[in-house]
Specification:
The protein is built from 17 helices and no strands. It is mainly α. The chain has a single domain, classed as Na+/H+ antiporter like fold.
Length: 397
């Protein structure tokens, strides 16, 4: 345990010291974290042996995603979003279902040994985008504001929408009672409705209390880093407990907190963003050290081809079609389509599917891990060059 702790703590220290320099290069944090876990884990040197089961990794990924969703939503520019709401609305109402359908169609062709429900599960696992991996784009002021806010809202809501769809497919594929809750449209609406209600209700109460305590001077500086972290995790956990979508709750709570706490929010959000980055670091190290090594044996040409298609055609064509008719240039639509990275949400879904013990579970998890690895690499390396290209193309001549 102490050997693992010393390696991980030393890595956190070194990376936190050089993070600003790394951010000015094409290399991203998740690339470094995953590579560290892979290099020092059982597949590599064998120095890092983190004894964490799949449920532990799933919990860590869920909490990390909830915190990232909350802080990203709180930083959203609501005035811009109010004018450009049609972009995320199209991406979620048209682009997301089209992505799942196209992923299913190509999966049937590439994986003839999988059952139809298993292929549909694969398409659903890889449909949601990752707010954390997309941070390099959605926080870059060079990207047009409507594009940034559109991608931010899409990544904040699509994972919560996909949860009941995935549960429904698992119910059909396994017949296990645990997953049958997801088998109705009523549950789908209930999951989203409870998520929004919990996020709004908890944030309203918490914001009122924070304002009261701030006016009274009761919040000590040493405790200022905790309220937003606790609120984000409370929204997530309470929604999950009540049968709703914790991810929807975290994102809707973050949006409301950003709107209500305009003056105080940055003082509270900055420490919470640091906590989210730390949790993400640990999650990606565990992903590289554990999950990648367990699935390498399932990598083959069909898996690699589907992973490439998932990041390109399966994502980009539905996005382009869903944005048809909006006053966006073709290059902007392609930019939005390309920046749909896969990460924490897909890890959570993958562990759910792996635990379901499906006949093709190994192929499904291997394809998911391969897609995430490619996304970490390709989206990370392409973020800054493509942002610069889009910026140059958008300037008036």
């Amino acid at each position: 345990m102490y050997a693992n702790l010393s390696l991980l703590a030393l890595f956190v220290f070194v990376y936190s010291a050089i993070a600003g320099g790394v951010e000015r290069t094409p290399v991203t944090g998740p690339m470094v974290f995953t590579a560290f876990g892979l290099a020092l884990g059982p597949v590599g040197l064998g120095w890092l042996n983190l004894d964490i089961d799949r449920e532990g990794l799933r919990t860590l990924a869920e909490l990390t995603l909830a915190l990232v969703l909350f802080t990203d939503a709180a930083n959203a520019n609501l005035s811009v979003l109010g004018k450009s709401w049609h972009i995320p609305e199209r991406l979620l109402s048209l682009g997301l279902p089209l992505t799942i359908l196209l992923g299913f169609a190509l999966g049937v062709l590439l994986f003839p040994d999988l059952g139809l429900f298993e292929v549909a599960i694969l398409a659903t696992m890889l449909a949601p985008t990752d707010a954390a991996l997309g941070k390099a784009v959605v926080t870059n002021a060079s990207v047009p504001a409507d594009v940034r806010e559109g991608l931010n809202v899409e990544s904040g809501l699509n994972d919560g929408i996909c949860v009941p769809i995935l549960l429904a497919l698992l119910a059909l594929a396994t017949g296990v009672e645990e997953y049958r809750l997801g088998f109705s449209l009523g549950y789908f609406a209930e999951a989203i409705g409870i998520g929004v209600a919990v996020g709004v209700g908890a944030t309203l109460a918490a914001t009122w209390l924070l304002r009261l305590c701030t006016r009274q001077g009761w919040i000590a500086e040493t405790w200022r880093q905790l309220p937003v972290v606790a609120l984000a995790l409370s929204c997530f956990a309470l929604a999950q407990l009540l049968g709703g979508s914790g991810f929807i709750a975290a994102f809707s709570g973050g949006l409301l907190f950003g709107a209500l706490a305009q003056q105080e929010k940055h003082r509270f959000l900055l420490p919470a963003e640091g906590s989210g980055d730390t949790l993400a670091l640990v999650t990606w190290v565990l992903f590289g050290a554990g999950l990648v090594g367990q699935t390498l044996g399932y990598f083959n040409w069909s898996v690699l081809l589907y992973a490439v298609l998932s990041l390109t055609l399966i994502r980009m064509l539905p996005v382009y079609l869903s944005l048809w008719g909006l006053p966006l240039q073709p290059r902007t639509k392609l930019f939005i389509g390309w920046f749909g990275p896969r990460g924490l949400a897909s890890i959570v879904f993958g562990i759910m599917v792996f635990s379901a013990d499906l006949p093709g579970g190994g192929t499904l998890t291997g394809t998911l891990v391969c897609t995430i690895l490619l996304s970490i690499l390709l989206h990370g390396l392409s973020a800054n060059p493509l942002v610069k290209a889009l910026t140059r193309a958008s300037r008036p001549s």
